[in-house]
Each structure stands twice: as structure tokens, then as C-alpha cells.
Description:
This protein is mostly helical.
Amino acid sequence: xxxxxxISEAEYEVMKVVWKFEPISTPEVVEKLSKKSDWKPNxxxxxxxxxxxxxxxxxxxxxxxxxxxxxxxxxxxxxxxxKSFLQQFFGGTLNSMVLxxxxxxxxxxDDISELKKILSKRDQKEGEK
Length: 129
């Protein structure tokens, strides 16, 4: 499996647009990102070029525009970043993170109820195997 490139937070915003709408042209990326950020078109062009250079995106020329498709899958990127986050801040263990959130009252009662439902469904699936 090839290594997933390091992507900045801003580049991640560009990737989310590409993942959602790929294949997508440069003007379409600019239009969609301009609606939710104050980035100038040149900034977006620069980020697209960086992502191509990092092998996160593939660009092909179609007439006068480039068409972008991702070279990494969103779920694989999120999985890798999640593991990295857990390792960096919680020694790689999910229970340490959840305990920290509970102790610091970061989880609402609704959050805790939702977690219980998720775990209950998982237990039911495990029981069916």
C-alpha cells in the first residue's frame, strides 16, 4: 500500500470538494470553495497544484481546464489521520480519548446515549457471527 501524503488543513478542504464531486474541473473547485471560504482563485489553484505534486490528486487537461480526480480514498485518509491523532495525543488507545472527553465533560448526555447505541449495535452484530 502506498503511503498517504501529508495534507494541510486547507488542502484537506480542497480534497473534500474533490472527493464529493470528482471528476471536477478547476473552475468548479474554485466556485464551490469560494462559497464557503474567502480564498482567492489563485490560492485555490496553488493548493490544487500542491495536491497534484503530493500525488493526492491527478490532473488531466481537458480543453482549457484541468479535471481533477483523487489518488487517495477519503476513508483511508480519515482512518490514517484518526490513528495518527490517537497515537499523538492518547498513546494510540481510543478508551483514553473517550475517558478524557468524559472526565472533561466534553460529551453531552446525547453523545453518551449515541455511543451506547453504537456499541449495542456492534455487540448485536458480534453476537450474530
